[in-house]
Amino acid sequence: MERFRLKILGERINPGFKSTRALFDNEDLAGIQALAVKQVEAGAFALNVNVGTKAKSDPQFMAEVIRAIQAVVSVPLSFDFHGAEAQEICLKAYDQEKAGGELPIVNSIAETRWELMDLQKIRPFRVILMGTERLEDGVAKPNKSGADIAATAKRCAKRLVGEHGLEMSDIFVDISVSALIADTTGMVRATLDGIRAIGSDPELHGINISGGLSNIGQQLPPKAADGSDLKEQLECAFLTLAVPHGMNTVLGTPWRSYKPLPDDNFVFDTFSKFLDTTGSNALRQVRRFYRA
Questions:
Q1: How much is the pLDDT for 262?
Q2: Which pTM does this prediction carry?
Q3: By CB neighbour count within 10 A (0-12 exposed, 13-18 middle, 19+ buried), where does 194 fall?
Q4: I want to staple 47 with a disulfide (CB 3.0 to 4.6 A). Which of 10, 121, 150, 273 is the partner?
Q5: Maximal C-alpha separation, the chain
Q6: Residue 69, SS3?
Q7: Model pLDDT, residue 3
Q8: What is the DSSP string of 200-250?
Q9: For the residues of 158-215, what is the DSSP string, one character each?
């Protein structure tokens, strides 16, 4: 079956992966370079960089990692830090010429952290915009409905274009995919509703819709009741519903086989039924993934 035509933002340079954390602990720059090359060769259009707590404890190491990656690959880099200080170090270390002239990506801009846009004084950049939180009367609030996700994305995207000179194509809206095991309130369904609303809005034409899929199968067993790879199949099930409505980018592992699932696929069928449930019924539906 043909794969989805998705832009893959390589996720593996992140201490959340045990093998990568070991590379950071040993300051193994050659190993980090090999991981960067592997992701690009597997099709990543850009690489996400997150060195975890070393961003604060050893910012010079973070700069060395960026320079080491850019010595072996020529794709743009995304810097995954909430703090302006870490982002500033990353943007100053980034060599745009070595990325084929492509701008870096600041991950993550949010309505609640708009001060990060002051970093434009260092260099222009593209943004990953969080659609999951909003500022309401000066207070940060989580978005719990598709309408809120879409409204926040639209409000912030128009501000990025109007006030900061970005193009819609410079913006990646991160819609954040929740873990099924903890989703008793319909957040995955709300996320899909948000994708539909953003993707169908003519004022947002050209914007990118992105998300990290690895959360969806968190704390679930590796195999589904039918013996298939449960976590990868769940990611594909989500994409089967999201891609036709505009999701075009994944923060993910480039060598995974992201492809649409047929209606009679066990995991897709169970996932579709899960979306119609909430509360304890949702948890019972989750059990069907791995209990025959």
A1: 96
A2: 0.95
A3: buried
A4: 10
A5: 57
A6: helix
A7: 85
A8: T-GGGTT-EEEEE-GGGGTTS-SB-TTSSBHHHHHHHHHHHHHGGGTEEEE
A9: HHHHHHH---GGGEEEE--PPPGGG--S-HHHHHHHHHHHHHT-GGGTT-EEEEE-GG
pLDDT, the chain, mean: 96
Report phi then psi at 132, rounded to 5: -100, 0
Per-residue pLDDT, 180:
95
Identify whether the C-beta of residue 6 lies closer than 8 Å to the C-beta of residue 243: yes
Task: Enumerate residue ranges in the chain where pLDDT < 50.
Answer: none
How far apart CA 51 and CA 63 sit, in angstroms, is 10
* Structure-token pair, residue 192: 């899909």
**C-alpha torsion sign, points 254, 257, 261, 264:** negative
All structural domains of the chain: 7-287 (3.20.20.20)
Residue (of 107, 35, 104) closest to 72 by Cα position: 35
The candidate with the shortest Cα–Cα distance to 238, out of 287, 190, 282, is: 190
By DSSP bridging, strand 46-49 and strand 247-252 are: unpaired
The pLDDT of residue 2 is 82
CB under 8 A, 24+ apart: contacts of 263-272: 265/233, 265/237, 266/224, 266/225, 266/226, 266/228, 267/224, 267/226, 267/228, 267/230, 267/233, 267/234, 267/236, 267/237, 268/233, 268/236, 268/237, 268/240, 271/234, 271/237, 271/238, 272/237, 272/241
Residue type present at position 136: E
Taking a C-beta distance cutoff of 8 angstroms, is the pair 89, 63 a contact? yes
Nearest to residue 211, comparing CAs of 254, 249, 239, 157? 249
- Helices first, then strands: H and E counts in the chain: 10, 10
For 126, residues 6+ apart whose C-beta sits below 8 A from its C-beta are: 76, 103, 104, 105, 106, 166, 170, 171, 172
pLDDT on residue 6 = 96
